[in-house]
Design a protein that fits this description.
The structure is a homodimer.
Chain A: H1 15-24, E1 29-30, H2 31-41, H3 50-62, E2 66-72, E3 78-84, H4 86-110
Antiparallel strand pairs in A: 1-3, 2-3
Chain A binds a DNA duplex through residues 10-14, 16-17, 30-33, 49-59, 73, 75-80.
Chain lengths: 118, 118
DNA sequence: TAGATTATGTAGACTGTCTACAAGCACGGA
DNA sequence: TCCGTGCTTGTAGACAGTCTACATAATCTA
């Protein structure tokens, strides 16, 4: 059976970091699981490619926003579990409010309030 | 007097094209005016740099989404007026729905619905 | 033993935004 | 006349993050 390809949306640059941080807020997780969570929670709209995922995780770790440790996954495979650091929690808040400001700005332009008398 | 710098948000890659198209839906306009419109309408949250603006306009023109002609601006200066082409109108619709899908997907992850019994 | 699944990773292309610089023209004030 | 300022368009090059494509390894199952 051929799966109908869900209309996927490309990631806007910078948003993946935020989604990873938000996912880890629910508790430590490993890369593969983070990607699956994002895909499922977004109703298959967003698919995280491994070529985006792992560089992003390494980036966040290098910045000290997340920290890693090798453990065993649910399926009994070695997996690198990431958790939010204290700094990461702070950054999550600021990144999320940045996103909201941006989304609001987009809305202002895309759906402008009709001026009276115009 | 020092102007307090408004908290600006960086553009997420790909969104500028959409904002330009949306701006031109209201009627032909030139680059400088488009940038001002975006800045004003977004309440100064978004500022379009010239190094982003003009490449974007040229890109859209090359794709045939907008078309240009030299005219005189309100202030009596030569200015390149852009207008949406028929193709551009179609693309505006699809680009806008792509944005809305993406924004919705972000919302699903950032503000998940709490499952019952959890 | 072959293949699917789980899991991590890298190289290099690509795209679009940013900073910084440049230039032309009109206007008003010194 | 000269200078600064506002309006308008433009380019070069740096930079950042995502994408495609490829690679590896371990475990489980047919």
């Amino acid at each position: 059976m051929i799966q109908k390809p869900p209309t996927r949306v490309e990631f806007l640059q910078g948003t993946l970091d935020l989604l990873i941080l938000r996912t880890l807020l629910a508790g430590p997780s490993h890369g593969h699981a983070v990607a699956k969570h994002i895909q499922r929670t977004s109703e298959d709209l967003l698919q995280v490619e491994t070529g985006s995922l792992y560089p992003a995780l390494h980036r966040l770790e290098a910045k000290g926003w997340i920290a890693a440790s090798w453990e065993l996954s649910d399926k009994g495979k070695r997996a690198k579990y990431y958790r939010l650091t204290a700094l990461g929690r702070k950054k999550l808040v600021t990144e999320q409010s940045k996103w909201q400001a941006f989304a609001r700005a987009m809305g202002l332009i895309l759906n402008p309030v009709i001026e009276e008398g115009q």
